[in-house]
């Protein structure tokens, strides 16, 4: 179990007009905030999506049992309290009383059970809830979750992965539920105009603090430069991600505000370890020595990123330094020969538009220096991830957000993990993940993850590149709340100055 893996890859969509309900200029009358998202939503059903854009919208519609504050501490949300059994294998959650869904129905424990059960069946989330044996409603305001074994990061793993839905609304909506979502959150769904925008309105019966801004509009602008022009002209109020090359321009504009957010979204080169040629560890090690991370950071992010030697971010529990590879083309050539490719090699390198395409171009140049020809295959986002999932590729560029605990990375590195696009399988890696999640001793967990991080590095499962610093921009007179490390924010924390 872990937090939801959010896949990062920019999609290009045409810039389009704001909904008429926006009132023209962004922030008109101070009762509306218009936020730019880089692609249209696929669905607002949280169990049918791993998209960052979808999450940026539906995190404002739904509530969770718990949430993480700015320090990463677990704090109450729909669950006002919880208790852990003596054997560490059972949690009892007490729900807030009187919480209403947007359709007026009252939240009950059965809705939470339904949300857990739905998530456990979801192809996007089922692996994240594998430790759960049973979820039951003790009464209308109490939910009991039984685990197969102690799981230290259980509470934190619920953040970003379990959104509470109305059982009745989901069943009524059927396959179309994602187009008419019903949550308990601070904003209610109004409408989705495909390729244009999603409109939300404040939930005036919200159980928590009332959102200062009445209307929230998520406008689709696929081109970052077009989005920035829209911000400067007053057409929009906030952009989740602006190009790093625009940093100085935004910082020097008194009418705009720049926000820098260190992320836990790792960008890396992925290799299909289940098939030739990358089922050869020496070849994978050669790739790690051949790729210049500093250059990739400059090319793809204008220097707005932190290079990494291992998989885990410095900002998560379980981080430790590893013996990495560094940039060493000569060593890469030696390992290439050791792997049996004395005359070089030709591979296909898949990518999608945006920063990851620039990563692919940088990698292509690096590999040419050691005698490896990498032919870049640009693809549409959904087809791209479909190919990775099926193993129909050799190399690719990817970025994912896994969460703030090393255990959560099991989804991309453990046998059978739904985000394990490397198709890597190692019983020792699986055992270390299991030992880390089941231990309640923090010191022992850290030692376990230290061993795991070094093993993954030695195996050269991926080529870890960097953790980017996300740049967001807003009008200077818009107060923006906390932007978390996976690039989500609560519109309910926004207000006009």
Structural class by SSE content: alpha+beta
Q: What is the H level of CATH, i.e. the homologous superfamily of the largest domain?
A: Dipeptide-binding Protein, Domain 3
Tell me the number of strands.
21
Please tell me the total number of domains: 3
In the CATH hierarchy, the third-tier topology of the largest domain is known as Dipeptide-binding Protein, domain 3
What's the oligomerization state? single chain
Beta-sheet strand percentage? 15-25%
The outline comes out as globular
Q: Assign a percent range to the helix content.
A: 25-40%
Q: How many helices does DSSP assign?
A: 14
- CATH class membership of the largest domain: Alpha Beta
Give a quick account of the main beta sheet: strands, pairing sense, barrel closure.
13 strands, mixed
Instruction: Specify Rg, calculated over alpha carbons.
Output: 23 Å
Give the low-pLDDT segments. Answer: 9-28
Spatial gap, N to C terminus: 41 Å
